[in-house]
């Protein structure tokens, strides 16, 4: 996956290109350069990036606040499937689960039943299932792992 670099961080940092690409016009307006050029030159600092992502002029702001805002935008755009951890420690799409009612189950909302689209043809051996590995990895990549 193509990435756009973040300037001014202590560790190498980047965001998915698909998140910033639709805002290239604002990058040109704010910085006089297209995204490819900005990326070759090291990217943008968080506060510059949030201005581009919000399609507005750059305004100086606290970098930690800007970073949180960028991360929220990324999560909304990238993380479209909400995952939940099952009793075996694996992650499954919440839309495949029926949940207990907290009012009738001691105040706890838990998975009541899971109906996975894979059909469990593997004999429910989720530890060796490639589909399960993908779902666990998706939960991790989208920062839904708790």
Q: Give helix and strand order, one letter per element, not per position.
A: EEHHHHHEEEEH
Task: Return residue spans where pLDDT drops below 50 for at least 5 consecutive residues.
Answer: none
Shape: elongated
Total number of helical segments? 6
**Rg from alpha-carbon coordinates:** 20 Å
Number of separate strands: 6
Strand order of the largest sheet: 1-2
Distance from first to last alpha carbon: 24 Å
Largest sheet: 2 strands, antiparallel
Write a concise synopsis of the structure shown.
By secondary structure, the chain is α+β, with helices and mostly antiparallel strands. The chain contains six helices and six strands. Strand 1 and strand 2 form a beta hairpin.
Describe this structure as you would to a colleague.
With 146 residues, the protein is α+β, with helices and mostly antiparallel strands. The strands form three sheets. Strands 1-2 form a two-stranded antiparallel ribbon. Strands 3-4 form a two-stranded antiparallel ribbon. Helices cover 37% and strands 13% of the residues. The protein contains six helices and six strands; from the N terminus they run ββαααααββββα. The model has no long low-confidence stretch (mean pLDDT 88).
Characteristic terms for this protein:
single chain; 146 residues; alpha+beta; two-stranded antiparallel ribbon
């Amino acid at each position: 996956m193509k990435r756009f670099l973040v300037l001014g961080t202590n560790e190498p940092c980047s965001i998915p290109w698909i998140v910033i690409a639709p805002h290239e016009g604002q990058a040109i307006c704010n910085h006089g350069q297209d995204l490819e050029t900005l990326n070759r030159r090291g990217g943008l600092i968080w506060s510059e990036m949030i201005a581009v992502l919000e399609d507005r002029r750059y305004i100086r702001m606290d970098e930690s606040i800007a970073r949180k805002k960028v991360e929220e935008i990324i999560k909304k755009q990238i993380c479209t499937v909400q995952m939940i951890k099952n009793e075996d420690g694996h992650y499954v799409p919440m839309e495949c689960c029926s949940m207990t009612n907290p009012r009738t189950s001691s105040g706890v909302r838990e998975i009541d039943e899971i109906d996975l689209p894979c059909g469990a043809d593997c004999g429910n051996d989720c530890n060796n299932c490639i589909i399960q590995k993908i779902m666990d990895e998706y939960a991790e990549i989208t920062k839904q792992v708790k």
